[in-house]
């Protein structure tokens, strides 16, 4: 099942803007109870979230490209047999 590339891009763009900010502000009170450097650890948490989002996008894009290549090969082989 092929995904719409534009919707995938919109989904990951929204996630890239909102999730790191949410991770920063939600983890800051947690880290404040343990250490004085809560801002640093919260920023690290936001960076980790960004990396997770980027990995997810690259993984989806790579598999989508691989699926399209396999679909093209099967279509070409079916055209040759006809």
TrEMBL record:
<keyword id="KW-0256">Endoplasmic reticulum</keyword>
<keyword id="KW-0472">Membrane</keyword>
<protein>
    <recommendedName>
        <fullName>Vacuolar ATPase assembly integral membrane protein VMA21 homolog</fullName>
    </recommendedName>
</protein>
<dbReference type="Pfam" id="PF09446">
    <property type="entry name" value="VMA21"/>
</dbReference>
<feature type="transmembrane region" description="Helical">
    <location>
        <begin position="6"/>
        <end position="26"/>
    </location>
</feature>
<keyword id="KW-0812">Transmembrane</keyword>
<keyword id="KW-1133">Transmembrane helix</keyword>
<dbReference type="GO" id="GO:0031410">
    <property type="term" value="C:cytoplasmic vesicle"/>
</dbReference>
<feature type="transmembrane region" description="Helical">
    <location>
        <begin position="38"/>
        <end position="62"/>
    </location>
</feature>
<dbReference type="GO" id="GO:0070072">
    <property type="term" value="P:vacuolar proton-transporting V-type ATPase complex assembly"/>
</dbReference>
<dbReference type="InterPro" id="IPR019013">
    <property type="entry name" value="Vma21"/>
</dbReference>
<dbReference type="GO" id="GO:0005789">
    <property type="term" value="C:endoplasmic reticulum membrane"/>
</dbReference>
<keyword id="KW-0968">Cytoplasmic vesicle</keyword>
């Amino acid at each position: 099942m092929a995904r719409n590339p534009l919707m995938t891009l919109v989904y990951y763009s929204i996630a890239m803007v909102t999730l790191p900010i949410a991770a920063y502000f939600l983890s800051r009170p947690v880290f404040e109870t343990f250490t004085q450097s809560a801002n640093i650890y919260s920023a690290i948490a936001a960076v980790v979230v960004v990396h997770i989002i980027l990995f997810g996008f690259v993984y989806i894009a790579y598999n989508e490209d691989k699926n399209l290549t396999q679909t093209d090969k099967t279509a070409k082989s079916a055209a040759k047999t006809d």
